[in-house]
């Protein structure tokens, strides 16, 4: 609040003037209190800032020490050094900021308080004093008696002088008040403005500093993506090596010892041995021995210089020592001395003796003819006590998957930014990606994109086929249909990450560039797909003709309804050998001939006729409304992956239910269509593998009824519940047994047995049975690469006699 005291009013010394003076004095007192508090807070802030700078300096010193410790890694050392320099510069900027705060707030405001407010207080004291003197003079003048002239004159003179002094002092006091009121504004604003400019300079300096640092940070960010990939690859290699070594037999340490005269480091053999000292006590000490450069040496610690036991092995002999109390001893004898040593086992003793003998022979050969070294490399010059083999690699990965996927049109460049030679893929979209775009896709979440490496990960055959049937060209025609129309710029290689991320989110999350079909276009699409499905249903490629099912022969004691026959799961042991026993009871050619049926238990037959088969011919009914879900429904049956991808892009629910057709889902229709890749595409896009129709039948039921062995294998791998029963209380296994489909019976029984084995091993078991894994892998490859071998059985017909 601005308070100005009028000079004319002060001469009157009116009550209004006195009230104004009181208000000014109260305001100045409060101003002094606020300024003192602000100065103290500023001092506290500066002290805290200095403490922060001190702690920050220690942190920067820690970074420098870490950089010095990382001298072997040039990238880490140079980067940390540069970061430490930048952070030290920021500490300097902070110091300048706190110094400016001390000058602008503390010093400047303290000066204002001490000088200007002190002058105001001194003027106030004089004003109060002269006001009291004036009041006394007025009282004395009023009390002077009329008849005492000399007293009247004295009182009048005193009053006149006092008034004159009061007028002079009150004018000075009012001047001081007005000057203070005017100066307070400029001093406070000047101080705060200086403080704010100090902050502006500080942040500008910081911005300029990190702008210069940004290219390095950007470069490191790009390198980090590659480092993450390299770390994942190294981790995978180490885990594989760990698994390989873990499979070896380490029941005896002597299996790890091997002799290699052609070792790169010159050490032909090394290991621990006990050595007998040559002193009077003949003590035995354990030392690390090695044969290197035709010498026998040992070390107590790694950093110790090796102690040479034998200078030249050509002059030595080695022999067993059976005449001492200790076991497994042998002696190396040279012309000047002998050395007694002890191994941990007989095998190790034999290995060391053989190694010394081989080294002696090698030393002579090397001395005589250097050309024979080439012959040793092709001969059995290396021996090992470890005979365990390496596990064979059966999964498709690396260059094989990469070449197949990149051969698809458009896949040779990243689908989103055009970066050539991509090494990553989104398996639910069916596209290839560069490393930067793959990181952005991974951040979207698996409900939008599932990222996998084309070189580091293994690829199942059905997933590889899915990648080959879609591709960047097909997906971009869907997800970028309106991009040019909307004027959106497609990212280029090297664009900033935030621009690429914004484009990818607009493309796949918001689906901004997808062209929405009209109702008429959607209707024509659905009708076309339904007609296409009908043509596929009538073609021989959809379901190849199968031989008629065998007629089971009943054994004595069983009836036609199969009431006394063992259940489908009987005779399967819950043990590691259960899979072998079950396979032994299954025909080797996975088919049930009449002869097999005569020798094996009869299959249970239905006692009553169930309702019509779900494998009926697909009939297209005019729906109540057309939707992307209906398009996905018929596209799944028609085996058209581009139309399925388009339907999902238009917002189709992957688990959409057709209430007009027994509540069937697209996944069930994909089973009807007979395409393994179509099922894989829906499962990768979160289709429910256990969703049932009105008959209580899920995809596994339908695949079993149709005899689609590859689909049964796929659903079991994806967690399908084989214990689910339909409204007729039939499980997939019961249906497969009635249909006499030995392939599917084998898969279902193996899956159930494997599940029981894992439950028996505990809740954290992940191994399962090896036979189960091998057989499922064989069926997977057969279903993808040679499906005709699996089309050997007639589909299930519950109405057959």
SSE order and pairing:
Layout: H1 7-12, H2 15-69, H3 74-143, H4 149-246, E1 258-260, E2 267-276, E3 284-292, E4 295-299, E5 307-310, E6 317-321, E7 329-333, E8 338-342, H5 346-368, H6 372-378, E9 382-384, E10 396-397, H7 399-406, E11 424-426, E12 431-433, H8 435-444, E13 451-453, E14 458-459, H9 461-469, H10 472-479, H11 483-486, H12 497-509, H13 519-538, H14 578-584, H15 594-599, H16 628-638, H17 641-649, H18 666-673, H19 676-684, H20 699-706, H21 709-717, H22 732-738, H23 742-761, H24 770-785
Helix pairs in contact: 2-3, 3-4, 8-12, 9-19, 10-17, 13-16, 14-23, 16-17, 16-18, 18-19, 18-20, 20-21, 20-22, 21-23, 21-24, 22-23
Region (Disordered): 367-396, 524-610, 782-801
GO molecular function, one term: GTPase activator activity
Organism: Seriola lalandi dorsalis
Could you explain how this protein is built, in words?
By secondary structure, this protein is an alpha+beta fold. It folds into 4 domains: 7-241, Substrate Binding Domain Of Dnak, Chain:A, Domain 2 (Up-down Bundle); 255-381, Pleckstrin-homology domain (PH domain)/Phosphotyrosine-binding domain (PTB) (PH-domain like, Roll); 396-509, Arf GTPase activating protein (Annexin V, domain 1), CATH 1.10.220.150; 520-537 and 577-604 and 618-790, Alpha Horseshoe (Serine Threonine Protein Phosphatase 5, Tetratricopeptide repeat), CATH 1.25.40.20. The chain has helices spanning 7-12, 15-69, 74-143, 149-246, 346-368, 372-378, 399-406, 435-444, 461-469, 472-479, 483-486, 497-509, 519-538, 578-584, 594-599, 628-638, 641-649, 666-673, 676-684, 699-706, 709-717, 732-738, 742-761, 770-785; strands at 258-260, 267-276, 284-292, 295-299, 307-310, 317-321, 329-333, 338-342, 382-384, 396-397, 424-426, 431-433, 451-453, 458-459. The strands form 4 sheets. Strands 5-4-3-2-8-7-6 form a 7-stranded antiparallel β-sheet, with helices on one face. A 3-stranded antiparallel β-sheet has the order 12-11-13. Helix 3 (74-143) packs antiparallel against helix 4 (149-246), helix 18 packs antiparallel against helix 19 (676-684) and helix 20 (699-706) packs antiparallel against helix 21 (709-717). The longest helix is centred in the N-terminal third of the chain and has 98 residues, at 149-246. The chain is flat, with a radius of gyration of 47 Å. Residues 367-396, 524-610, 782-801 are annotated as: Disordered. One of its GO terms (cellular component) is endosome membrane.
